[in-house]
Specification:
Elements lengths: L1 E2 L3 E9 L5 E9 L5 E6 L9 H12 L2 E6 L9 E3 L5 E4 L10 H15 L5 E6 L1 H10 L7 E4 L4 H8 L4 H10 L18 H8 L4 H5 L16 E6 L8 H12 L3 E6 L9 H18 L1
Parallel strand pairs: 4-5, 4-8, 8-9, 9-10, 10-11
Antiparallel strand pairs: 1-2, 2-3, 3-5, 6-7
Helix pairs in contact: 1-9
Length: 288
């Protein structure tokens, strides 16, 4: 455990509800009872990115506990253990099944309930982590969501694959169910066919959740306060003002947010974002 005058931190291993073992870093105030935020990383990332650690430190100093977790989609590829100690599957970003992220978040919530018996647990996500926590909130009661750079993965992937997208989509859809775990070399960094289709098939929720061109219809079903932080230089939400207004229109009165002079990483704004989150959490807590 790491400690200083205002906060301490510890690594926690916990099982997802299907028994896959995951890890996270809990950064929390040293002397105060606090609110709790579970943070979900973006595609190919993990709980210990420098920006996430800095944000966690700032929140802990402000009196908010911050549990940044690895989901089964962390990094590009990762080998997992099972709860019983046996070797589990190789997953990571290129192989994960989006819907299984619910089991990861459920496991993290249970771990925090064991640490804090009587506090409300908020969810935060960056990039594709926004899709995961929003998908979770559409099925579960959550006191509040923090959306950091909620990007349009579908349109970003389509633009990155100019000239190859339609052909690759057709190839993936023609594969039988028994072959959809095969890697598609046409897609950087090498998604499996099922992972690619999760992001690109209009009948699948993952790629459509934050598809701004489609109008964000799923977000109108959210029933929880939402704080969103967008960047002016983020191609996944460009133009940022239009994306912001659409988020506000679809989520309604429970929406609040800001647009920062930042790229998709929101790097350099960790202190400001932490203050916004602290203010948001405090406001929601007082409204109860």
């Amino acid at each position: 455990m790491m400690t200083n005058d205002v906060m301490n931190a510890k690594i926690i291993r916990f099982p997802a509800t299907d028994g896959i073992m995951l890890e996270g870093l809990l950064q929390r105030p040293r002397w105060r009872r606090s609110s709790v935020i579970i943070h979900v990383h973006g595609m190919g990332s993990n709980f210990y990115s420098s920006r996430t650690l800095k944000m966690g430190r700032e929140l802990a100093k402000a009196g908010v506990s911050f549990f940044s977790i690895n989901t089964r989609g962390h990094d590009l590829s990762a080998w997992f253990d099972q709860k019983d100690g046996s070797h589990g599957p190789v997953i990571g970003t290129i192989r994960e099944r989006f819907e299984e992220s619910v089991m990861d978040i459920d496991g993290a919530i249970k771990a925090m309930q064991e640490e804090y018996s009587d506090t409300r647990i908020f969810l935060s996500g960056h990039s594709t982590g926004c899709q995961k926590i929003t998908y979770y909130a559409l099925q579960h009661t959550v006191p509040g969501l923090v959306l950091l750079a909620p990007g349009d993965d579908y349109e970003m992937l389509r633009s990155e694959m100019t000239g190859k997208f339609d052909e690759t989509y057709d190839k993936a859809t023609r594969l039988g169910a028994d072959k959809r775990d095969e890697i598609l070399p046409e897609v950087f960094p090498g998604f499996t066919a099922q992972r690619f289709l999760s992001l690109t098939d209009p009948s699948r929720i993952e790629g459509m959740l934050f598809n701004y061109k489609k109008g964000l219809p799923y977000l109108s079903h959210l029933n929880t306060p939402v704080l969103a932080v967008l960047g002016t230089n983020d191609p996944s939400t460009a133009p940022a003002d239009e994306a912001f207004n659409l988020l506000r229109r679809q989520i309604g009165q429970q929406f609040e947010g800001v647009i920062l002079d930042a790229d998709h990483s929101l790097a350099g704004h960790e202190t400001k974002i932490s203050r916004l989150i602290k203010k948001f959490v405090t406001k929601v807590q007082r409204a109860v």
